[in-house]
Amino acid sequence: MEKILVAGAHGTTGKKIVNLLKESQYFNPIAMVRKEEQKSFFESQGVETVMGDLEEDVSPVFNQSYDKVLFAAGSGGKKVVEVDQEGAKKMIDASKQHNIKKFVMLSSMGADNPSEAEELQDYLKAKHNADEYLKDSGLNYAIVRPGSLTDNELTNKIELAEKLNKRGEISRNDVAQTLVRTLNDDVANKSTFEIIKGDTIIADALNKVAVH
């Protein structure tokens, strides 16, 4: 079982990711949390936790070893530079130092070209900077850029392309499922892609980006 450090584990999508990892036969989640009550939330479910704050020094988080990192943290628009950008960079630096095998980044559609966005420009700019930093890091990575998030049920189907050239929405459940599948060694290495709801089963859609 590979140990997966999940940053942003207590977020809406993060909780779904941790659940999927917990049910997986390949992965063992370690939930990175900021607060004691978040710690007990996961530990009551039998999920291992580690305390860490993206606005502080994250090196103590790496006092234990992990195989891969999944970054699903977000400030909810409040601290986009501190959390979405600089927090991500800190995790990337630490991952590089500790020879993490793959870094999966939950980004956002529009992060490739923030200046074109009609709204959320600051957020998308922070995401863009974090994504570029990851690409330049030398780490193996996958950057997943979903459209607008909904709380709809899992469909297990998406539309995926490096650039979709259209807007769309996707459920957090399908995003979580995509992110977890992207952790696999034979899928989406050194690749960036966009996803919205669609007609292709997630595993099949991801097979298209298996080889960079």
Describe this structure in words.
The model has no long low-confidence stretch (mean pLDDT 94). The chain has six helices and eleven strands. The chain has a nine-stranded mixed sheet, sandwiched between helices. Helix 2 links the parallel strand 2 and strand 3 (48-51). The longest helix has 18 residues, at 80-97. The chain has helices at 12-23, 36-43, 80-97, 121-135, 172-182, 202-207, and strands at residues 2-7, 27-33, 48-51, 68-71, 102-106, 141-146, 148-150, 157-161, 169-171, 191-197, 200-201. Helix 1 (12-23) packs across helix 5 and helix 3 runs parallel beside helix 4 (121-135). It has a single domain (2-207), classed as 3-Layer(aba) Sandwich (Rossmann fold), CATH 3.40.50.720. With 212 residues, it is α/β, with parallel strands linked by helices.
